[in-house]
Amino acid sequence: MSKADQYLQSIISKHRKETGANLQAYQTARKFMPTLRGWAGETLIDITFAGSYAKGTGVEGSTDIDLLILLDAHTCDGMKDLYENLYSYLDSKLIGPIQRNLSIGVNHSGIFMDILLARRLISNSGMHDLYCNIHKTSIKTNTILHNEIIGGSGFTEEIQAIKIWRNVNRVIFPSFYLELTILDVLANRKKRNLSDNILEIFLYLEDIFVKKQVCDPVNLHNIISDELTIQEKLDIATLARRTQLAANWEDMIW
User: Fold this and answer.
1) What is the 3-state secondary structure (H, E, C) of 181-233?
2) DSSP for 49-94?
3) How confident is the model at residue 134 (pLDDT cuts 50, 70, 90)?
4) Hey, CA dihedral for 237, 238, 241, 243, is it positive or negative?
């Protein structure tokens, strides 16, 4: 293994969020699930782990754990009403919820969790409506399949390295958009060493990223790249260009 790869793996290990049943975040989320079941009642299909925790791509600087509430297709209320009802329910429990783009954030026993709300579609049991609070609408997608695609890609270390780079530079780059971008760069390449792959990602971010349309792999009508403005994309490209001018890896990711 090269010195560059050794350094990068040490940085990833430093910032990586671990997963597993022995972790406080996991145990706290399990204890919190009955509260969510109490709200969902008979409409509940399941409560599952989601987001970077389920994909194995988590790093410091994000929520500790994400949970997905999946409701039955025959749940009567609209998704906006369900989201607001869940928010009011959590607020009544003195949990102090925070409305986010695709979730409701809570701090339970010192663990920060994002609660995503979805309703299964009748036409396709694998697909579901996921509520998007910022646009006050629903997105047809499959977050469970997202976990499999990204978590099983073989590029979790590259994803974590770029998330660390994003966080230390305080640039806006939504995690799902970031993950799909990295798969777009690397998926058709032969597996190479970590440092070479990350350099390839920086080149892509500088030269191609701004104009590249990125879609949800399970619903091409969901344009994930629309989550950022042109200026926000240009900020990422500029940072990637500046990063490549660094004399050593210690000045690129730390």
Assistant:
1) HHHHHHCCCCCCCHHHHHHHHHHHHHHCHHHCCCEECCEEEEEHHHHCCHHHH
2) EEHHHHHT--BTTS-SEEEEEEE-TT--S-HHHHHHHHHHHHHHTT
3) confident
4) negative
Lowest-pLDDT choice from 14-28, 111-125, 204-218, 230-244: 111-125
Q: Is the pLDDT of residue 125 over 80?
A: no
Tokens of 97: 């919820």
Return the CATH fold of 24-148.
Beta Polymerase; domain 2 (3.30.460)
Domains of the chain, by residue range, sit at 3-15+153-251, 24-148
What pLDDT, on the 0 to 100 scale, is given for residue 124? 63
Looking at the structure, give the CATH architecture of the domain made up of residues 3-15+153-251.
Orthogonal Bundle (1.10)
